[in-house]
Recover the amino acids of this structure.
C-alpha cells in the first residue's frame, strides 16, 4: 500500500520523539514487577542496530543468592516455535517438502478422521488436533517421563479432533510437536541437531541450546513458580515433551541475533519470511492474527511480529517492529511474573508513542449513554456499566475493569494495559458500536438492546456453603481454592488474587467482579467431589482436600 507524505512525516516525527530518559522509563516498568530479592528478569531494547537498554533485575538463583545478569540463559518456551516454523520453511525452500503435504505422508497411521491435515494447518494452529498440554491425562507424573517423538504422538493422536481443519484457530502444542518429527524425517537429523547445526552455529548463537536438565549450561537462570503466595522451585518437566513446541534455551542477545538474521533473509528466503509473517486466514476468510511461528499485530499502529513463551519456571516475550527495526525482549525466571505487557510498553516508548493517557472529565449524563451490551454473539460480548459515577467494562468470561475517558467516546483501562475502547456514533450521533484497539486486530462489537445482565444473590446456610470449601485441582499444579473470611466466600486460583463469590442457586456461584461462574458437584454419596468452572467452556476440577 502506498503511504502518503503526511503518513511518512508523522511516522518520522514519532520515531525520533523518544522519552528524555528512556532508561529511567524502562527501569520503572521493570522494578514495578521484578523485585531485587525475588525471581528476576532481563530486558533488551535495540533500535536500528543501537542498544537502547540492556539490564537485569532480581535474582537468577534465590537459594544461592546469585543476582540476575543480562547474559543469563532462560528457557524460552514457545518462542521455540519460530525456529521450528523456520526449519520447515527452510526445508520447503530446499524443495524437500510442501506445506500442502498431508501429515500422513510423515506419520502413515495418524488418524485424520477423514480430513486432510496439512503442514500448513500445523504451522498456523488450525489443524483441529487436540493439544496434548490441555489433556487431563497429561499430569504431573506423565510430565516427568522421557518420550521419543513418536511415543508422545501416540499419547495424543487418538484424541477426538476439536474442529475440522481450517475452521478455527486454537493454540496447539501437538501441532508443533508433529512439525518437529517431520523435520527429523525430512532432514535425517534429530530436531536438536538440525536446529543447532542449521541456525545456532551459523548465526553464532553461542548461548542457545536444546533444553536439558542434566547438561551444565553456564549462566542458566534457575526457574521458579509461585504457589499459595510462596515462591517455589518450578516442577520438573522432561525436555523431550515440549520438544519442537517449546524446548529451546537462549539469551536476549542471541534472540536479537535470530530476529536480525531472519529479517535480513539470512535464515529463510524473503518470500518464505513474508509468508510466515502474514496473518493466516480461516476457511471463512477470517484473519487469525498468526502466521507461521509469529503473532501478527501492532504497537500503537506500527506493524509488529512477536511471540511469547511460558514453560515451567519461565515466561518470555519478544517483539519486532519492522518499520522501526526495533527489537524488544523481556525474559523472566518465574511463572508468576508476566513480561508481555512490559515488552509492549517498552516498544511503544521506544518509538515515541507510549501507552499513556490523560483522563478528562465527562458529564454523568454523557457517561450513562455508553452503558449497554455490545456484541450479539454471547460468546464474545462486552458489557459496559455505569456504577457510582464510574464506567466499567467486562468481557464474556473476563473480569470487570474500570475505564476512564481520555477524549469524548475514547476510554482507557485504569489498571494499565495497552487496550483502549472507542465508541462509534452514527449520523444521528447515536452510539452504535464499540471498537477495542490493542496490539492485534481491532475488534468491533455492535450495540444491542439486550438488558444489562445481573444476578440475584440468594442466602445459603453455613451448613451448605461449608461443604464447598476446599481445594480443587483443575490441572496439574493449578489449584482452585474455595475459602471463607468471616461470612464471605472467596475463590483463588494458583498464582492469582482472591475474588469474592456469591450464590445465585444452591450449588451455583458467580464471581462478583467477573463473568465467571462455578458449579459445585456431588457424587453418589451426596458429598461435594468436584466443581465446574464456566469460563470459555466448562472445565471440571476434582476436589482434592
Amino acid at each position: 500500500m502506498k503511504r502518503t507524505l503526511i503518513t511518512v512525516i508523522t511516522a518520522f516525527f514519532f520515531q525520533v520523539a523518544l522519552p528524555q530518559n528512556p532508561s529511567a522509563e524502562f527501569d520503572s516498568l521493570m522494578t514495578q514487577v521484578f523485585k531485587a530479592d525475588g525471581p528476576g528478569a532481563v530486558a533488551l531494547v535495540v533500535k536500528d542496530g543501537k542498544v537502547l537498554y540492556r539490564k537485569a533485575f532480581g535474582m537468577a538463583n534465590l537459594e544461592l543468592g546469585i543476582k540476575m545478569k543480562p547474559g543469563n540463559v532462560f528457557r524460552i518456551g514457545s518462542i521455540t516455535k519460530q525456529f521450528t516454523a523456520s526449519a520447515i520453511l527452510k526445508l520447503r525452500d530446499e524443495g524437500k517438502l510442501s506445506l500442502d503435504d498431508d501429515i500422513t505422508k510423515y506419520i502413515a497411521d495418524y488418524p485424520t478422521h477423514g480430513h486432510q491435515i496439512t503442514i500448513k494447518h500445523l504451522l498456523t494452529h488450525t489443524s483441529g488436533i487436540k493439544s496434548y498440554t490441555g489433556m487431563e491425562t497429561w499430569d504431573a507424573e506423565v510430565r516427568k517421563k522421557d518420550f521419543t517423538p513418536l511415543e508422545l504422538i501416540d499419547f495424543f493422536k487418538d484424541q477426538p479432533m476439536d474442529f475440522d481443519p481450517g475452521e478455527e484457530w486454537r493454540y496447539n502444542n501437538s501441532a508443533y510437536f508433529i512439525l518437529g518429527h517431520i523435520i527429523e524425517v525430512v532432514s535425517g537429523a534429530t530436531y536438536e541437531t538440525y536446529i543447532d547445526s542449521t541456525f545456532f552455529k551459523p548465526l553464532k548463537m553461542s548461548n542457545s541450546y536444546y533444553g536439558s536438565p542434566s547438561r551444565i549450561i553456564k549462566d542458566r537462570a534457575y526457574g521458579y513458580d509461585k504457589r499459595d503466595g510462596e515462591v517455589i522451585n518450578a516442577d520438573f518437566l522432561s525436555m523431550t515433551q515440549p520438544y519442537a513446541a517449546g524446548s529451546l534455551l537462549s539469551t536476549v542477545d542471541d534472540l536479537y541475533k535470530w530476529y536480525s538474521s531472519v529479517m535480513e533473509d539470512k535464515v529463510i528466503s524473503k518470500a518464505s519470511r513474508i509468508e510466515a509473517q502474514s496473518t493466516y486466514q480461516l476457511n471463512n476468510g477470517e484473519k487469525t492474527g498468526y502466521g507461521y511461528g509469529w503473532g501478527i499485530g501492532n504497537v500503537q499502529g506500527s506493524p509488529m511480529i512477536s511471540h511469547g513463551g511460558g514453560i515451567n519456571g519461565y515466561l518470555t516475550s519478544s517483539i519486532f517492529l519492522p518499520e522501526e527495526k526495533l527489537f524488544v525482549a523481556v525474559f523472566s525466571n518465574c511463572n508468576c511474573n508476566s513480561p508481555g505487557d512490559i515488552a509492549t510498553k517498552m516498544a511503544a516508548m521506544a518509538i515515541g508513542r507510549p501507552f499513556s493517557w490523560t483522563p478528562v472529565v465527562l458529564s454523568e449524563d454523557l457517561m450513562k449513554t455508553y452503558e449497554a451490551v455490545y456484541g450479539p454473539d454471547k460468546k464474545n460480548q462486552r458489557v459496559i456499566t455505569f456504577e457510582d459515577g464510574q464506567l466499567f467494562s467486562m468481557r464474556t468470561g473476563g473480569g470487570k475493569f474500570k475505564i476512564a475517558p481520555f477524549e469524548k467516546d475514547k476510554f482507557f483501562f485504569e489498571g494499565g494495559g495497552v487496550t483502549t475502547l472507542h465508541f462509534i456514533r452514527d449520523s444521528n450521533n447515536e452510539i452504535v458500536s464499540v471498537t477495542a484497539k490493542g496490539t492485534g486486530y481491532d475488534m468491533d462489537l455492535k450495540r444491542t438492546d439486550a438488558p444489562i445482565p445481573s444476578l440475584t444473590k440468594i442466602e445459603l446456610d453455613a451448613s451448605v456453603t461449608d461443604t464447598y470449601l476446599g481445594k480443587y485441582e483443575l490441572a496439574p499444579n493449578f489449584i482452585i481454592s474455595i475459602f471463607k473470611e468471616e461470612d464471605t466466600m472467596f475463590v483463588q486460583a494458583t498464582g492469582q488474587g482472591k475474588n469474592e463469590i456469591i450464590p445465585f442457586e444452591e450449588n451455583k456461584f458467580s464471581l462478583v467482579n467477573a463473568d465467571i461462574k462455578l458449579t459445585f458437584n456431588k457424587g453418589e454419596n451426596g458429598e461435594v467431589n468436584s466443581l465446574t468452572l464456566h469460563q470459555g467452556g466448562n472445565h471440571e476440577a476434582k476436589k482434592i482436600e
